[in-house]
Amino acid sequence: MSDTPNTPEINATEALAPVFQIQRVYLKEASLEQPNSPAILLEQQQPSVDIQLGVESLPVAEGVFEVSVTATVHTKIGDKTVFLAECKQGGIFEVRNIPEDQMGALIGIACPQIIYPYLRGNVADLITRGGFPPVHLAEINFQAMFEQQQAQAAATQQ
Predict the structure, then answer these.
(1) 64-77, strands of its sheet edge to edge
(2) pLDDT values of the chain reduced to their tens digit, one per residue, 158 residues
(3) What's the Cα-to-Cα distance from 77 to each of 24, 55, 90, 141, rounded to whole Å?
(4) Best exposed site among 62, 65, 83, 96 by fewest CB in 10 Å?
């Protein structure tokens, strides 16, 4: 038996307690293309590397959100592609009883920060398994990225 009384007031307080839990982190999508292999592999020039990142979120159920971080790594020599790697890392998060004014930052900053290390590892692994030296994605300031997106959205509405 429990020493704590099971009163409606305690149950109501527990029901309104903030909840933020990771349900699952998973590799949603991965692709590696080498359209000019093997000839491009014999080139001696240093390739250029372009890295693009994106964050998406969508509600999947009441209080449950999927957040995805996508990385695209496009490596070229001149105008020819050496490889194009794309990975999308997803996470399912339970988010309940959080004030509405904090939800955007939680979904747009905290969730991507949790997912990103998994994405970095998967990108490096995918590229290495393709026979190339790994590309290590730099640390990202998701708060600055989120604030920039908010500023752009506000400027668009004006």
Answers:
(1) 19-33, 80-96, 64-77, 48-61
(2) 555 555 555 565 566 899 999 999 999 999 999 999 999 888 889 999 999 999 999 999 999 999 999 999 999 999 999 999 999 999 999 999 989 889 989 999 999 999 999 999 999 999 999 999 989 999 999 999 888 888 888 888 87
(3) 38, 28, 31, 29
(4) 62
Residue for token pair 């209080």 = 63
Note whether 106 and 55 are within 8 A (CB). Answer: no
Q: What's the rounded Cα separation, in Å, for the pair 12 and 82?
A: 59
Tell me the domain boundaries of the chain.
18-136
CATH class of this structure's domain 18-136: alpha beta
